[in-house]
Amino acid sequence: MIPFFRKKGNGKPKMEGNESTVSSEDLLNESADTASSEKQIDTDLSVHPEWTISKEDQYSFQFLNMECPPLKPNQISLSGISLQHEEAGQYQITAFIRSSLNKTIKLHETTLVLLDSSDNVIGRKTMDLEEAGDIPPRSSRPWNFHFTDQDLFTKDIPEEGWKLAFQLKPSSRKHSLDLQDSWEQSLAEKDKNQLQEMVEKLDPPKSGEVNFMGLKAVHKEEGDLHVTLLVRNGSAKSINLEQIPLQVEDANGEVIAKGGFTLKDFGVKANTSKPWTFIFPKEMVTDGELDLSSWKAYPVQKNAAH
Q1: Count of helices and strands (H, E) across the chain
Q2: pTM
């Protein structure tokens, strides 16, 4: 076995890969634990009982584990530590298996994918992860994953910015709600549950499709128009939206508001829907009474403007 870490100039270990996260419900096919009210969960280092490692490696794993961001309840993640090329077409990927669950879990045969920094799949392998042993509650277990040239789709393997991820079976991935942190913190649990139920009852978007569904439109006394939409991602990849040109039509099919919105760090995870409120200032809204008994909002192409 090759070393876990490459030596850095400052002598400190560094996470060379990124983190991928799935819900325990999707991966383990079991109901989520709703008892915990915590929004963020830190994981404690858990080295496999049969591993014998040096004090230096123990310190390095402890240091890197503390660098990992907290998990949300009912999440399991893979956090990339290092990807090293062994001889004869062998690759060793070291990553943390992290769990925020309040109980011990055990993984079984699972398909893993290796992604580059743009989330393109550059490798795939089915592995039996029972050897990783029992993963204690709220813990982070370092483990080595071995790939060969036959498991990889390219010879251009990045040393940094890659990601190891669980490949979920399509049948186990139901479309779910994704909330921005600000919404997660401000929405009442009752409202979150209503949104989740609505998302689950709706027909999911087609595979690879991204669309917008209207939830609420309010014309304020000062003239602003507040439009809440559900951004629905039917893709198997997360998307990041930076600029959205939107227009709104009223019950008569007339365009009553039009404008461009610049978003910061607005990502929508794969196979999820995320609500967001877009505020059209008074100057972007048609004068007079608006018939909002029915309405729709949708993105427009720049070249579609007349």
Answers
A1: 4, 15
A2: 0.57
